[in-house]
């Protein structure tokens, strides 16, 4: 995430919202995250400061970049949509079936190289669960198991 992506006016509006005091805590936390990212803090530093996970912080940033403050105010329940289309998911599952990568990290690197998708550990676990892939430490596999490792 680029440092200084907010304009001075955007920063001023966000800080004014925080100073009102009546702002919902969830909305305020989202604004704080975006302001800290804008200030140049790493995602990891914001995670530690606000006691949230990195997928959440990245989601706040993505919501702000795509929809501004309205994106931060939206509180939808349920999971997010997959960043991959059906063809990409099939290619990923096929790749795992052929190569049997020894770690999730290798699977994440393949997704980054193949499609430019950068999944966090939690995001990659969720993706793998969603497509029916199970990671286990390397052992002898039973035929037909769709497992990694």
Give the helix/strand layout.
Layout lengths: L7 H12 L5 H14 L4 H8 L3 H20 L12 H14 L4 H12 L5 H10 L3 E2 L11 E2 L1
Parallel strand pairs: 1-2
What can you see in these coordinates?
By secondary structure, the protein is mostly helical. The protein has two domains: 66 residues; 63 residues. 60% of the residues lie in helices and 3% in strands. It is built from seven helices and two strands; from the N terminus they run αααααααββ. α1 packs antiparallel against α2 and α2 packs across α4. The chain is elongated and about 55 Å long. The two termini are 32 Å apart.
Say how many strands there are: 2
* SSE sequence, one letter per element: HHHHHHHEE
Radius of gyration, CA atoms, in whole angstroms: 19 Å
First CA to last CA: what distance?
Answer: 32 Å
Point out poorly predicted stretches.
none
Shape descriptor reads elongated
Fraction of helical residues: 55-70%
Beta-strand level of the residues, as a percent range?
A: under 5%
Number of helices: 7
Strand neighbour order, sheet with most strands: 1-2
Overall pLDDT level: 81
Major β-sheet, in short? Answer: 2 strands, parallel
SS-based class: mainly alpha
Number of domains: 2
Keywords:
two-stranded parallel ribbon, 149 residues, 3% strand, 60% helix, mainly alpha
Can you describe this structure in just a few lines?
The protein is mainly α. The protein has helices at 8-19, 25-38, 43-50, 54-73, 86-99, 104-115, 121-130; strands spanning 134-135, 147-148.
């Amino acid at each position: 995430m680029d440092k200084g992506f907010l304009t001075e006016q955007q920063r001023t509006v966000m800080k004014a919202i925080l100073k009102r005091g009546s702002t919902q805590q969830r909305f305020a936390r989202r604004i704080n995250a975006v302001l800290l990212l804008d200030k140049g803090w790493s995602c990891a530093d914001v995670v530690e400061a606000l006691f949230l996970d990195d997928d959440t912080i990245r989601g706040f940033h993505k919501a702000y970049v795509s929809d501004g403050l309205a994106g931060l105010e939206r509180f939808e329940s349920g999971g997010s949509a997959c960043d991959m289309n059906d063809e990409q998911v099939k290619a990923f599952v096929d790749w795992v079936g052929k190569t049997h990568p020894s770690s999730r990290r290798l699977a994440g690197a393949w997704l980054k190289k193949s499609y430019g998708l950068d999944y966090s550990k939690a995001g990659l676990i969720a993706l793998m669960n969603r497509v029916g892939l199970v990671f286990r430490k390397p052992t002898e596999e039973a035929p037909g198991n769709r497992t990694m490792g």
